[in-house]
Amino acid sequence: MAERRALTGFSASDDTLRAIEDWQRWIGDERRSSSHTLDAYSRDLAAFLSFLTGHLGSPPALADLNKLQASDFRSFLAHRLAGNIAQSSLARSMSTLRNFFRFLDKTGRVSNATISAVRAPRPTPPIPKAIAATDAMDLIDAAGSLSDTPWIAKRDTALFTLLYGCGLRIDEALSLNQADTPKDDAMVITGKGNRQRVVPVLPIVRQSIADYREACPFAPRPDRPLFLGARGGRLNPGVVQRQMRKLRGLLGLPSTATPHALRHSFATHLLGAGGDLRTIQELLGHASLTTTQRYTSVDSERLIAVYNDAHPRARR
Predict the structure, then answer these.
(1) Cα–Cα distance measured from residue 285 to residue 218, given in angstroms and rounded to the nearest whole number
(2) CATH code linked to domain 133-310
């Protein structure tokens, strides 16, 4: 059973508090949401209830929630915007409230459909920050210099080569087991929503992983993680992030050069070399082509920069 998250910074009636506890259990036990999601939802709801206490003049009861109008929800959004909250966080707050009110309706406590008419500002998707092709290659070449332990040096090189060569998310790469070691020209990756996709594997990627596996001191086992930490457990993403920070300092790369940026670079460089969006969508495992289309903005910026640097009129 999921552990209830304590909500702080607000007051509410006993019936509202009981409803919140049941909602939290429903999110954790039935919806199987992660503890991070539950914490974020709980913080959003606490902010809303705290606002209502001041807005209504007393701690909200379920009867108060049942009478809320669209103007009340919009006042909450305006209050949050005045606090310089990011648009993405504002959108999540509204998603939380819709989730909570659906639960109240499902359990027969409150039936208020007004919130469905309220729209939060749609967050602008960030443009992916790719690493230049030469910098990506330099980064992979330098990865092996970060550790004095030969097998760990080979591990880092193999991992960064895989991230850039196959466009994987870091959690996709670190969730691989030794049974998943690529032996042919393609491998099956399980991504978000347990969606599977087939990605091509370059010979240099296979060879880099093979070199690491050969040097690894831990006994091979199909169910053992492919990428191991120093003590033989599954490699922690925090270690990979730390190694990338070292590489940024070593090569003078910007803070946007992260492990995930290698995935962006994979897509951007394919697009720049003539790859079509549908193919890139399949390779990245995006459920929607709209997500993949962000990379056209990156490529357009690159083309404009090249134009401004190269065209005689642009230099005048």
Answers:
(1) 32
(2) 1.10.443.10
